[in-house]
Amino acid sequence: MLTKLTTASTAELPLAPARLYGILFTIALAAAGWGLSLLPGLDRLGPLACTLLLAAAYRHRFGYPMTLGVGIRFSSGTLLRLAIVLFGLKLNVAELLQQGLPLLARSGGTVAFSLVTVLALGHWLRADRKLTLLLAIGTAICGAAAIAAVSPLLKSKEEDTAISAGLIALIGTVFAAAYTLIQPWLPMDAAAYGVWSGLTLHEIAHVAMAAAPAGQDALADGLLAKLCRVALLVPLCLGIVGFSKLNARRKTNASQGSDEADGNAPFPFPWFLLGFVAMSLFGSYVLPDVLSDSSALLDDVSLFTTLLLGMAMAGLGLNVNLRDFRTRALRPFIAMLIASLLLAGLTYASL
Length: 351
Fold this sequence. Notes:
The protein has helices spanning 2-6, 15-36, 46-62, 69-87, 93-124, 129-140, 144-154, 158-182, 190-200, 204-211, 216-231, 233-250, 256-263, 272-290, 295-317, 327-350. The chain is mostly helical and 351 residues long. It is globular. The termini are far apart. 45% of the residues are buried.
């Protein structure tokens, strides 16, 4: 029944049911992944990793369920951001102010290193320039979300955007699973491990997957470090717009006006960052005055947040398409892989 539903023609499924069925599909994958994580051996990966791997396996076997795409994107996008906003309830503002600025500086170094390294390796390997640039931005900031944000500014083809998002999801999934497996043997405390995950993994969902098994401290620090990188998406996009304008001015011709208009193409602002900070302020200063003991409520919110993250993992895993690993994408992928390994190693050594 499920396979028949996901392979039905798009015309047979109106928008509203497609969204609902897509959301229910990610819930089903999240529940199945949670069940798999209870099995011996798979319990080391945890429910988030099992869900992501299960979704990737489904995509490889049955293909992407196009008719449910709107609901799947809702889970991997909107619900993921909602989960991050809700997690702000457990983040102490004093700790945020104390650690946020140093992490922001580290994040700036991560972004600069990733951009320069991927682009340099791509040039050395004679890789496709457009794919390499998209993968460099995805590696530096926040994976597929960053790629989707800058694609209109770079006037990228839909095919390039899809391939780049799939490749960044693939390598991010492998790295997050590897982090989860080696975490118990690493000579570092939970907080440092969380920061390492947040500074080096590509997607917010990957950071959550890798950091969650190490505990709440690791997850909090990992998300904080990752959100510092996400915040740098805004100046990066502004830089791309500014560069486009300068480039348009150099090409003084009849189409200069339209070029500048294209350079002003809008990009999605990460509004969930403001929600994360707002919930953190609420949890730090308002909630203690409303409830004398908020631990039970926070535990329920944490459970709900885990479900939302599991649904986001399902959506992310469904974006992993092994068949997109073509000859054209091989060299950019190698450049991104080498840069990711260097980033992980150098960041680990610096902590």
